[in-house]
Amino acid sequence: MNRLKRMAIYVRVVELGSMSAAARELAMTASAVSQQIRQLEAETGIVLLLRSTRRLSLTEAGQAYYEDCARMLHAAQAADRRLSDLRDEPRGELRIAFPVGFSTMLAEALAPMLRAHPKLSLRLFAEDRKIDLIGERIDLAIRIGSLADSSLIARRLAEWRHMLVATPAYAQAHGLPDSPEALGTHAVLILSVLDQPEFIELHRPGEPARRVRVHGPILANSAEALLQMTLQDLGIMRMPGPHASALIAQGRLLPVLPDWSMAPIGVYALTAQRESQPAKVRVAIAALREHLEAAATA
């Protein structure tokens, strides 16, 4: 039994007034408790308790030592209670990293969570680069697409189908491709963070997959930057279906090759560890999964 445990036993002996009472509370024998107190006195080199057949009394040094040990024990108990609160109740600061283009989805998913849990706050890092979760103390990161092998724990939140889009003005000026192969003659704005971004693979029932090499005037690592360029009539881009559908409904974009589809892309929540996630991380993952799955099927 280590020194800290002996100190905790000593505190309970003093507070309960006898070794037998402390032994009952701690599920030990009275002789075992007495042995631990003697060991503590041997380690400190000073008598802490004066023993008689009727009662225990503290020496002056024993009283001072008790007060210090009690403060330590109570601080440890408070730390345990705080951890329990963090585990069981969403509270404190939640640090989330996510792609810039995911901002709208994130706000829609997490606003209800914040209203439901007023002790919770967010610190948001909108980054299209892959951020160091451990180095920057990120609780949760959102990644879209394939994941590199790493020690991070990935949880799939949803799968998004992607679609090709262009503005009505681009369509009027350049026409729209009528086949996958015709994409090669158009300006396609390319998102560099995708796997093999210069290729697009399209599928249609009953036909073999078509893999087309595309090119265009803009290569960017930000989906939001590409969208703004697309809205300036500079070319065709691929984007997540939920986001594209909203802009199509507004008349700002048109679907390109709507009879063809692309393989869905996974949306993942990444954490630095699998076990013992605090409540704030668990409720955020649940809120994101619920919202993204609903958006994917809308």
Determine the N-to-C terminus distance.
60 Å
Q: In which order are the strands of the major sheet placed?
A: 4-3-5-14-6
Order of helices and strands: HHHEEHEHEEEEHEEEEHEHEEH
Major sheet description: 5 strands, mixed
CATH level 1 class label of the largest domain: Alpha Beta
- Percent helix: 40-55%
Structure characterization notes:
Belongs to the LysR transcriptional regulatory family. Keywords: DNA-binding, Transcription, Transcription regulation. This is LysR family transcriptional regulator. InterPro entries: LysR-type_TF_proteobact-type (IPR058163), LysR_HTH_N (IPR000847), LysR_subst-bd (IPR005119), WH-like_DNA-bd_sf (IPR036388), WH_DNA-bd_sf (IPR036390). One of its GO terms (molecular function) is DNA-binding transcription factor activity. The chain is of the alpha/beta class. It folds into three domains: 3-88, Winged helix-like DNA-binding domain superfamily/Winged helix DNA-binding domain (Arc Repressor Mutant, subunit A, Orthogonal Bundle), CATH 1.10.10.10; 92-160 and 266-297, D-Maltodextrin-Binding Protein, domain 2 (3-Layer(aba) Sandwich); 162-263, D-Maltodextrin-Binding Protein, domain 2 (3-Layer(aba) Sandwich), CATH 3.40.190.290. 42% of the residues lie in helices and 21% in strands. The protein has nine helices and 14 strands. The strands form five sheets. The protein has a five-stranded mixed beta sheet with strand order 4-3-5-14-6, covered by helices on one side. Strands 12-7-13 form a three-stranded antiparallel beta sheet. It has a two-stranded antiparallel sheet with strand order 1-2. Strand 3, helix 5 and strand 4 (120-126) form a beta-alpha-beta unit. Helix 1 packs across helix 3, helix 1 (3-16) packs across helix 4 (60-88) and helix 5 crosses helix 9 (279-297).
